[in-house]
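Quick one: structure tokens for this chain, please?
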Amino acid sequence: MTTPDLRLGIDLGGSKIEVLAMDRAGQTLIRNRVPTPKGDYEAILSAITQLILNTEKELSAHGSVGIGIPGSLSKATGKVKNANTTCLNGRDLKGDLEASLARPVRVANDANCFTLSEASDGAAASASSVFGVILGTGVGGGLVVNRSIIGGVNSIAGEWGHNPLPWPTYRDTPQQPCYCGQHGCIETYLSGPGMAEQARLQHGVNLQANELLNLHPSPFENRAHFALCASKDSALTESERVYAEYIDRLARGLATVINLFDPDVIVLGGGVSNVDGLYEDVPKRWGKYVFSDQVETQLLQNQHGDSSGVRGAAWLWGDTR
């Protein structure tokens, strides 16, 4: 079979659909995007098809196609499940696209695509095991070993955001409802909206998550500083306390990832990942919770920014078939 000239990746998001074309060596050739049709599966299918065909026409070349979606494919039915773009759920997106494009298509969860991108030629390119974390409007994760996605028998590997926040304290109550139907999920604390809601509930601070994080002290030097931040009698501002609590919650959540998977590298993505202090402060805190006498896992910021998801979708065809 002839090797396609291009690797084409599609990032199917709630507000936009983006296509990226790479050459076989991984160099970006072109990026285009269109708004995501709201609640209209057929319109989404048509938009993806036209993006790919128009990109190939513009480059006068043919490509393999990988797609990152905000959900996963059911192993039982092959149809989309767990997508927050709900019109995708129960639909045969892979089969329908293969029919409209007349070629095989590979589909993966968008957090898996992010992780694959950073493990292939990004921040974690030298690591053999990588856990990728999305801290944005939601909390997602993906696991890549030797540049291969570990999807799991249920296609949910890496979904750490829908486990309960570990080692809870009185400051973590009351537990908030999650869209998945449970209460107290990690996502309800560590997503941008979750953090803002916790700040409002616990401290009466009405700021957006990015505003709160921009006020963080940098860096926390020792456990005594964390204790000071947790004390209601301290002279620190409410914003500093919110930041300290966020660091501790993120350290707790990632410690469970380390205890389960023990990855070489954890890479952060999403809007919250732009806070520089996380990369110093969280590793200083997670040792309290990791079941080891030392923690060698690296916590790194992504290299490809908001391109990582769509790049990872293109890398779903990392072989030459």
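Residues 238-261 form the longest helix (24 residues).
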